[in-house]
Amino acid sequence: xxxxxxxxxxxxxxxxxxxxxxxxxxxxxxxxxxxxxxxxxxxxxxxxxxxxxxxxxxxxxxxxxxxxxxxxxxxxxxxxxxxxxxxxxxxxxxxxxxxxxxxxxxxxxxxxxxxxxxxxxxxxxxxxxxxxxxxxxxxxxxxxxxxxxxxxxxxxxxxxxxxxxxxxxxxxxxxxxxxxxxxxxxxxxxxxxxxxxxxxxxxxxxxxxxxxxxxxxxxxxxxxxxxxxxxxxxxxxxxxxxxxxxxxxxxxxxxxxxxxxxxxxxxxxxxxxxxxxxxxxxxxxxxxxxxxxxxxxxxxxxxxxxxxxxxxxxxxxxxxxxxxxxxxxxxxxxxxxxxxx
Length: 341
Ligand SMILES: *Cc1c(COP(=O)(O)O)cnc(C)c1O
Fold this sequence. Notes:
7-stranded mixed sheet; two-stranded antiparallel sheet; 11 strands; 36% helix; binds pyridoxal-5'-phosphate
């Protein structure tokens, strides 16, 4: 029998389920104070569900916006006000003419004292801007020990070592680094789960999923099975530290190719914020960018077109992308620049 044919209430599936939950906690380095939840709806649903659970009416939540996903998180939290949710305050935005080329410093944050929480995006997938890669770009601190820090880690979860103890809620759609779409991972400090609103339909309360070990209703069992397998693979590869080393190498190959091109390729992102998951760059003209994408496709390198909202080129080099593939891309970049530059 396939895992798909087993009941989610059966012993066989339960073993898979609990192994997957434990592997998430282990590789994120979560203490016993945390609950790990498998839910559905993607990170996009969490954009609404987090304020529904944690942003009481009369309170304010602070948001740091460093790209398109932070913008979405703000707009969904604002829309949730119609469901009896409090106010949203943008504590900092690095939009500046739609640019988003860096993360703000701690000193730039306009934090609300007594905020319900502080929300940030660990890696801005579309703009290629990442927190915490350099001592000059640490993750933000909230206004006080009683203000939880919430982080959207959808595009860099388990790609590098991160001290989880600086956060109170970590969430991510599984599909970029740890499994198929359809599984959403929400890790919450237990005291935060307990603080959540109780007058929501049960399915929307994180408490429900925590109380039922993510088996309140049928979870995406096959996806969770694959999450468990991917995390077992990650362990066999040497864990997050080994993946981090590989990811840093991969990113360096591309940024070096950009820097060595004499200005033919240009990365708009500030050096200390350049993502090691999503490397974005421009060519001198949109026509050259189109030619680059087309020629790369001819060499069986797909998915290099930048997000439609920003254009340019984007190489998403998640955990599953091997060093050799990135070497091939860097080598193609050199050839292309030589031929067209
Ligand atoms: C992809 C992504 C999302 C959206 O995730 P869904 O699971 O598709 O809703 C949200 N935030 C970030 C940072 C992402 O990269």
